[in-house]
Amino acid sequence: MITPYLWRSMLYVPANRPSRLQKCARYGADALILDLEDSVPDSEKAESRLLLKQALKEPIWDSAELYGSNGGSERVDLFVRINAMRTRYWREDLEAVIPEEIFGLKVPKVEEPTKVEELDHAISRIEKASGIEEGRTKLLLSIETAKGLLQLSAICAASARVIGVGFGSEDFMTDTGIDRDNLRYARMQMTLVVKAFGLYAQDSVYPAFSDLEGLKQETEEAKRMGMDGKTAIHPNQIETIHSVFQPSDALLEKAGEICRMAEAENGRVFNYHGEMVDRPIVERYRRLLQRSREN
Amino acid sequence: MKVDAAFPDKVVRSLEDAVERIGLGDGMTVSFHHHLREGDRVLLAVLEAVRKKGIRGLTLCASSLMRCHDGLIDFLRDGTVIRVDSSGLRGRLGQFVRQGGMKQPVILRSHGGRARAVADGERAIDIAFIAASASDIYGNANGVQGDNAFGSLGYGIWDSFQAKKTVIVTDHLSQSLLPYISISQSHTDCIAVVDSIGNRGLLKAGALAEKSDPLSTAIAKNVATLLLATGIARNGSSIQMGSGGVSLKVIRYLKEAFLERGWRFRHAVGGITGGLLNALEEGWIEALMDVQSFDPAAAVSILRNRNHHEIDVNTYANPDNPSNMVNDLDIAILSALEIDLDWNINVLTGSDGVLMGAIGGHPDVAEASKLTIVVAPLIRERIPIVVDRVRTVVTPGKDIDIFVCDWGIAVKEEREDIRRSLTEKGIRFHTMKELFEKATRLVGQVKKEETGGRPVAWVQDRRGRVLSEIYESETSGGEHR
Question: Do B217 and A28 make contact, defined as CB atoms within 8 angstroms?
């Protein structure tokens, strides 16, 4: 099954660094993960949350994507990585960012389906209170422990908000004692489950950001495993990730069909093999086709 | 040192002897080049020799002045030099001029404009002091041999043609004929042998250093997409790339596309960077027309590669020379400190009026090229680059076609062909007004100090008309970048 989400790269940006928040949408990543978790020390959690909330209101998030229609620009897809649900910070994180109509949350260290349900309810409550369409805020879950990996089927089914799952190598290695060279089995297992649910599968960061050759090899491996994209911790990694995650023939074929159907439907929402397709989705596929033709 | 000169009277052992021998006197015009950029040690050393001789009231006609020339202030204060022509002013010297340190306004010209001015008599040169990394005992000189080989001598060659007398200043005197000759012995009246002409290691310092910042990468990608998707860059085009960090990255993106398609630029013109040297070796640029080398490696390339041509500045950009190379440009990529709603460009002063840059070949290339693209971030250190009115017009807006920044592309309304092509390819573009409004929403606009009062510098256009004036101001604005 092909995921409708086309992010080749997502760039992590620390929420406690205002100058980076100002510029990061210009770096060309397909989506951004604004991080309230690992890159923010406990002493700066509250301040960073406020800073991020303010930044989300500023006109700095226009997509750097050149391909698209004239007469305006689109906001880059924004995710916020909240603090893990085992901490005392996550509820305040939600209260701060959900009203700002972000694309979704990146949720670290997910291990239990009941926690995903709890998160879903908490988001719904805030969406309702903020006058935001319920279900708008999507979830991209991060599997970083053996327990989470073994529970992944139930986790994926726990909320309709779940659109994808990412692998968190560093914490997974800490949790399991498996070294980096032997993570293939876990990454593959995660991808298989995610694909069974028709969701977006995302690979972990490659921490050695100046080693672009190593990044390329690991990204190629992720693509061979069936993953759809990879996270980046430095803007210089984006280009390498994009060069590997060129769209597959199957995806291009799907994009072509959707664009043809959209033309026939003349702006109306339509059903594509059980997938509801509206204008923003058509626009994404159209851009994908234009970009791939030029490449 | 053995000096068995064929023409022994030509060779002297000190700059003071050269000043004496050449007959330099009060009120004359002396010229210098800036090929060694921040590594130049000749200009100030010559002026020191001049001062020791008690000579005063000189006009200094420099192809440009760098931060390493801040010491010029002492010679302006004591009257050794009373007039200055240059392409740029920076650092403490820029502050000194802006604060009214000189009685006569500095004249700022483009490289092509200077080539014209020294040829048509507007600024006739009495004595050209030309730093050369090698000279033979006959007076043949080049910039491609010796310990301080810096590459092309494009500005020096033209000065040697135009000056009444020429002094070659060198730290490498060859007893035998040089194998490569940039300046002929026929144009050399004196050879001054010095310990050092400078430090070529500083040639790439400052603006020429490659930057790894992601915004430059974003702008470069936008430029490459524009050039390739619309077919502006194609097999057989000619190009000038500029020297900034963005241009260096554009080369990298173009390389992939050109090698894949088997395309070649017919030539690249102007300042030659390491990226262009690689492109020549890799075969996707057929020839380099080098008026100024931005990488010391160019010296070896000029010597060894027959497709790397050293050209003088008259051949590069003199508007009175119909055979100049900029007239044959298809594509030019240039930088900016400010661009305004009428597309006028400022590359000379900050938004606060501080002199911090140089005109270089900007207006020459922009006027002559079939397509001119200006690149800059929308905002630089919280200062908007797109403004309602630039502080100092260096290149008129009529000569610019496209502006590319990290927020996208603006195409001038008159370039309907490019707008149509971008639309067909599904690439969005903006108006300059939209980018101006974006910049204003993000950081506001800088309130500019009222201009007026005594002019301290005149910016000339290519043909010698005053395009803008820079006025005296108490505020120095500090040392910028």
Answer: yes
Q: Report chain B's mean pLDDT, rounded to a whole number.
A: 93
Structure token pair of residue B426: 């599904």
* A138 DSSP β-pair partners: A104
Domains and CATH numbers, chain A: 9-245 (3.20.20.60), 247-295 (no CATH)
**Would you call A26 and B215 a contact, using CB atoms and an 8 Å cutoff?**
yes
pLDDT at residue A293 above 90? no
- Judged by average pLDDT, the poorest of A141-145, B257-261, B361-365 is B257-261
Is there a contact between A235 and B407 if contact means CB atoms under 8 Å apart? Answer: no
Cβ distance of A28 and B212 shorter than 8 Å: no
- Can you tell me the ipTM of this complex? 0.80
**C-beta separation of A106 from A79 below 8 A:** yes
CA of A26 to nearest chain B CA: how many angstroms apart?
A: 6
Tell me, what CATH number does B297's domain have?
3.40.1080.10
Q: Which residues of B touch A64 (CB under 8 A)?
A: 218, 406-408
Domain annotation covers residue B53? yes
Q: Write out the two tokens for B401.
A: 């076609």
B254 in Cβ contact with B314 (< 8 Å)? no
What is residue B325's DSSP assignment?
G
Range in A55-59, B68-72, B295-299, B441-445 with the lowest mean pLDDT: B441-445
C-beta separation of B141 from B170 below 8 A: yes
Q: What percent of chain B has pLDDT over 70?
A: 95
B195 and B221 share one domain = no
Domain span at residue B375?
Answer: 207-450
Q: Identify the DSSP state of B279.
A: H
Q: Tell me if A66 and B217 make a contact (CB, 8 A cut-off).
A: no
The answer to whether residue A46 neighbours chain B at the CB level (below 8 Å) is no
Partner residue facing A69 (CB), from B212, B407, B428: B428
8 Å CB contact between B133 and B142: yes
* pLDDT tens-digit readout, B204-230: 866 555 556 888 989 999 999 999 988
A54 touches chain B (CB under 8 A): no
Per CB-CB distance under 8 Å, the chain A contacts of B211 are none
- B463 is a domain residue: no
Please give the mean pLDDT across all residues of chain A. 92
Q: Which of B174, B202, B230 is the last residue of a domain?
A: B202
- Categorize the per-residue pLDDT at B479 as very low, low, confident or very high, splitting at 50, 70 and 90: very low
Q: How is B351-369 classified by DSSP, letter by letter? A: TT--B-EE-TTHHHHHHHS
B158 and B245 co-located in one domain: no
Residue B58 maps to a domain:
yes
Question: Is B144 contained in some domain?
Answer: yes
Number of independent structural domains in chain B: 2
- Give the end of a domain, one of B202, B236, B271: B202
Q: CB within 8 A of A233, min separation 6: which ones? A: A11, A12, A205, A206, A207, A209
